[in-house]
């Protein structure tokens, strides 16, 4: 092994993950077990990053593993796309592994975590590097099942088991749809290997079938509205490090599968115009629904889960635009959309991973997920607050952090819509872009709420008063993605250069020339005359203006004066007088009440006198309409049918016999109908030949048989 | 004896088969059901012998003798012993009343005649007309299993279905290979013995031979859990 390729490094990463899974067999003590798992996972992550970077730099390779079924060995391969997603896995897994070392310190029953977390990672790496449908589905299911056990890690609470069940159900549905998509591709190519599927020609009907199955399958796994039902339940109940990985990486693996099947295996040449429109519509609805619902949550992790739906929507908007542009023969612009989507993919991995780790830290130290019980944590957990703020700024798409770059690129792609040449699409794409803009603004509001309610103000409960700062492991685990967020925000040109292999692979065009024309400093997606952005310049400008403003407001020599806040004459301010999570989002609830249809209960208690209000209670519940209007009826229908079937099952033996009897009668009738139809078809031939009707070959030979015996 | 005579004889026997099937369906007393069942076995043996004569196949003679011994004598005797020991002489009220059952049976018979028509046209065997009747008998046997409440009558219905299948085999293909026939004969015998054992077991467990009783017991058990 003189030159080690990316594929070898990736396989080494898989082996490390397997070792971590097997570690409970050797190690008995919980403390050692935790350390070994985190160490092995960190090594896995480092190897994945190494494989990803070397793959993106051009070290591609494929090999056949001596594993799998006898007639079906496993094929693995690394191309630019796989390399990018390996990098993405490693980039969040490394900090998450470090974070877990601290986070899992007080967990009593560690074995399920040690077994299933590395398996989960193995599944994700396997999906990314797989090169045939069998390997893909195998690792896909490993990923889904392992993550089920991680979601139900804290299985003593009924709520968690229920969330886990819904997750498992939807994951299976997704798996089934994806399998269907592969079945279509297999029927067209006659082989399970991806290379054969790529080369096989597809008729438009079959291509559409494969596209729809894959889109719905991966859409379910990625949590696209209205297939997102499992996501807001499953993410909050999982432990903090798991939510970070699930939201940060697993949803992206679904995006990977989407790109792999639809862009790579079906191929950009087979796109039909309405595919892009469908993806664009799904993306827009996810983005807007996700953020609207996120805004109304008072469960911190649930808020983040809905925000994940929004970000998947943004990624899909980029992909949908790229599909439209690719369909209308604009590969260079399609490449821009694709890169925007991929850029947002890795960005979301980093800041959502960071947010979930931060939320995990907060939940860990306060013991509740309810934001109404938090507040003022910035004084008790300054590190967590600062790091959480970085992620909030990134996800709100503010420069100079990374969220801005990818959303800006998506907007730039949307602005290219007039190039499409179709009037209807030219009108539709701006609508989608407007949705994206609205989602961006609402996301900012949402994270102002998240940060403000959790970290600012006065503590709202004893739990918040007694919160404590996290340990160094968790801090270290959160610092890495925060730095990466800044790095990806500052060096977009270099990152796009690194990603360039993917558009080259899928669209056979390169973005480097157009993007790089003005050096590493200035990002020019299309042309310098249209738009350009330089993060370092923006950062410098912000620092100068901010510094000047600080110096102006705090001139030298003036000590900072601290006094009580202005309180309108009330003798003291207390924690009940500040904004709560639900009051912060109340204006939005009013404006979008047609969408939310909130369930509000206002109860005023007056005891002594009609004018003397002693107590006011306000209860609000915002429903997820998709769950109420779509999932619930389906669930009810299935239950009703199951009950009916169950009543049938309770009958006696004679009913079963009767069913058999009816079936036989029905089949015989079918047979006779078919035969008379056949007879009618044969009639003209028989009359013209004026011969006795043809004999069945079987009966004739039976006849001759008896003749011989006679 | 020439071909037409054999054919006419087989047709006549087929008509008698149909008669026994109807009679089985109509009877309520256990002993009469058993008599008609034995008669059906006898008819079957005679049919096999005549077809054997007509086609000159020696193997069919052997199967005729086996049929006579097994279905004409041994099975009815086994069942008679069970009935006597268990003291079940009358079928309780059947699910549907007799006339309605007969009407349904008539419909089923007509249906099978209609259904078999195209097949009869293409067959050149001497026994081809019996196919429709054999099919009708199979369906009537099933009807008997559905409409009766006692486990014993259901078993007789099952055996009648088997008889009809045998009749169809003789009618359509001049009998199955001997090895297969011997195998089936033993299967039926073993099945009858096992059924006999089960009757006793069911009786001791549920205090009744009616299938509803077992069902009620099952449901009751479910409710307890």
UniProtKB/TrEMBL annotation, chain A:
It is a multi-pass membrane protein. Its main location: membrane. InterPro entries: ComplexI-like_HydComp (IPR052175), NADH_UbQ_OxRdtase (IPR003918), ND/Mrp_TM (IPR001750). Residues 681-710 are annotated as: Disordered. GO terms for cellular component: plasma membrane. The keyword Transmembrane applies. Residues 130-420 form the NADH:quinone oxidoreductase/Mrp antiporter transmembrane domain. The chain crosses the membrane at residues 6-27, 39-58, 78-98, 110-129, 135-153, 165-186, 206-230, 242-263, 275-296, 303-326, 332-363, 383-405, 425-458, 479-499, 533-553, 653-673. Keywords: Cell membrane, Membrane, Oxidoreductase, Transmembrane, Transmembrane helix. The keyword Oxidoreductase applies. NCBIfam families: PRK06521.1. This is Hydrogenase 4 subunit B. It comes from Mariprofundus erugo. The lineage of its organism: Bacteria, Pseudomonadati, Pseudomonadota, Candidatius Mariprofundia, Mariprofundales.
UniProtKB/TrEMBL annotation, chain B:
GO terms for molecular function: lyase activity. It comes from the Bacteria. The keyword Transmembrane applies. The chain crosses the membrane at residues 6-26, 33-54, 60-83, 95-116, 122-143, 155-172, 178-200. Keywords: Cell membrane, Lyase, Membrane, Transmembrane, Transmembrane helix. The keyword Transmembrane applies. This is Formate hydrogenlyase. It comes from Mariprofundus erugo.
């Amino acid at each position: 092994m003189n030159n080690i390729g990316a594929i070898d490094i990736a396989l080494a990463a898989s082996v490390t993950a397997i070792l971590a899974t097997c570690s409970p067999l050797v190690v008995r003590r919980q403390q050692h077990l935790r350390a070994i798992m985190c160490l092995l996972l960190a090594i896995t992550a480092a190897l994945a990053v190494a494989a990803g970077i070397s793959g993106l730099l051009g070290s591609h390779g494929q090999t056949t593993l001596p594993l799998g079924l006898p007639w079906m060995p496993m094929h693995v391969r690394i191309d630019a796309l796989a390399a990018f997603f390996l990098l993405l896995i490693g980039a969040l897994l490394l900090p998450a592994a470090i974070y877990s070392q601290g986070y899992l310190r007080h967990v009593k029953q560690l074995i399920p975590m040690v077994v299933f977390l590395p398996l989960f990672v193995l599944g994700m790496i396997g999906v990314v590097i797989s090169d045939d449908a069998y390997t893909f589905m195998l690792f896909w299911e490993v990923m889904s099942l392992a993550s089920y056990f991680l979601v139900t890690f804290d299985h003593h609470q009924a709520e968690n088991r229920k969330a886990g069940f819904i997750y498992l159900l939807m994951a299976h549905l997704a798996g089934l749809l994806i399998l269907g998509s592969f079945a279509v591709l297999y029927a067209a190519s006659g082989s399970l290997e991806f290379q054969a599927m790529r080369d096989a020609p597809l008729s438009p009907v079959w291509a559409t079938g494969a596209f729809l199955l894959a889109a719905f399958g991966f859409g379910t796994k990625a949590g696209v509205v209205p297939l997102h039902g499992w996501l807001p339940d499953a993410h909050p109940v999982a432990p903090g490090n798991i939510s970070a990985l699930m939201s940060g990486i697993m949803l992206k693996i679904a995006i990977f599968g989407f790109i792999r099947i639809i862009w790579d295996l079906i191929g950009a040449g087979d796109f039909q115009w309405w595919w892009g429109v469908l993806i664009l519509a799904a993306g827009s609805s996810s983005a807007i629904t996700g953020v609207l619902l996120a805004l109304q949550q008072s469960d911190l992790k649930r808020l983040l889960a809905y925000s994940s739906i929004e970000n998947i929507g943004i990624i899909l908007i980029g992909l949908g635009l790229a599909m439209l542009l690719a369909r209308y023969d604009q590969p260079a612009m399609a490449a821009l959309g694709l890169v925007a989507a991929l850029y947002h993919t890795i960005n979301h991995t980093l800041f959502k991973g960071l947010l979930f780790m931060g939320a995990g830290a907060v939940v860990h130290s306060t013991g509740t997920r309810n934001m109404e019980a938090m507040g003022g944590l910035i004084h008790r957990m300054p590190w967590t607050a600062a790091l959480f703020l970085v992620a909030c700024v990134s996800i709100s798409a503010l420069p100079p952090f990374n969220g801005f770059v990818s959303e800006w690129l998506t907007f730039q792609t949307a602005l290219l819509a007039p190039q499409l040449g179709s009037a209807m699409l030219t009108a539709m794409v701006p609508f989608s872009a407007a949705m994206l803009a609205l989602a961006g603004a609402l996301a900012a509001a949402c994270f102002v709420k998240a940060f403000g309610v959790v970290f600012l103000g006065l503590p709202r409960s004893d739990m918040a008063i007694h919160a404590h700062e996290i340990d160094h492991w968790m801090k270290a685990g959160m610092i890495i993605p925060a730095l990466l967020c800044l790095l990806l925000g500052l060096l977009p040109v270099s990152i796009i250069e690194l990603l360039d292999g993917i558009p080259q692979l899928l669209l056979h065009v390169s973005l480097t020339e157009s993007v790089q024309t003005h050096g590493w400093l200035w990002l020019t997606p299309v042309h310098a005359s249209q738009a350009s952005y330089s993060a370092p310049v923006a950062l410098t400008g912000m620092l100068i203006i901010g510094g000047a403003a600080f110096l102006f407001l705090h001139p030298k020599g003036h000590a900072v004066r601290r006094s009580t806040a202005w309180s309108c004459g009330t003798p003291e301010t207390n924690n009940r007088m500040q904004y709560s999570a639900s009051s912060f989002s109340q204006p939005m609830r009013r404006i979008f009440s047609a969408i939310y249809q909130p369930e509000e209960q206002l109860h005023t208690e007056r005891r002594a006198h009609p004018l003397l209000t002693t107590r006011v209670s306000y209860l609000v519940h915002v429903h997820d309409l998709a769950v109420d209007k779509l999932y619930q009826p389906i669930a009810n229908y299935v239950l009703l049918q199951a009950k009916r079937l169950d009543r049938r099952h309770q009958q006696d033996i004679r009913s079963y016999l009767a069913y058999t009897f009816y079936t036989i009668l029905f089949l015989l009738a079918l047979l006779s109908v078919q035969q008379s139809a056949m007879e009618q078809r044969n009639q003209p031939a028989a009359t013209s030949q004026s011969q006795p009707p043809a004999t069945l070959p079987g009966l004739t030979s039976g006849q001759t048989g008896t003749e011989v015996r006679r | 004896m020439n071909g037409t005579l054999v054919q006419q004889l087989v047709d006549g026997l087929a008509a008698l088969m149909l008669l026994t099937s109807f009679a089985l369906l109509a009877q309520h007393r256990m002993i009469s059901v058993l008599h008609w069942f034995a008669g059906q076995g006898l008819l079957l043996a005679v049919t096999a012998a005549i077809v054997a004569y007509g086609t000159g196949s020696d193997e069919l003679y052997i199967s005729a003798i086996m049929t006579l011994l097994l279905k004409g004598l041994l099975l009815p005797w086994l069942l008679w012993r069970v009935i006597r020991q268990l003291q079940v002489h009358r079928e309780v009220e059947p699910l549907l009343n007799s006339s309605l059952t007969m009407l349904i049976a008539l419909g089923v018979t007509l249906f099978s005649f209609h259904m078999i028509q195209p097949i009869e046209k293409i067959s050149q065997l001497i026994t081809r007309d019996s196919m429709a009747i054999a099919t009708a008998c199979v369906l009537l046997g099933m009807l008997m299993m559905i409409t009766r409440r006692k486990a014993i009558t259901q078993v007789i219905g099952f055996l009648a279905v088997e008889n009809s299948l045998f009749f169809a085999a003789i009618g359509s293909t001049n009998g199955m290979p001997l090895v297969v026939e011997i195998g089936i004969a033993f299967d039926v015998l073993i099945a009858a013995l096992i059924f006999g054992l089960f009757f006793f077991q069911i009786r001791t467990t549920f205090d009744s031979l009616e299938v509803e009783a077992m069902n009620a017991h099952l449901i009751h058990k479910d409710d307890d859990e």
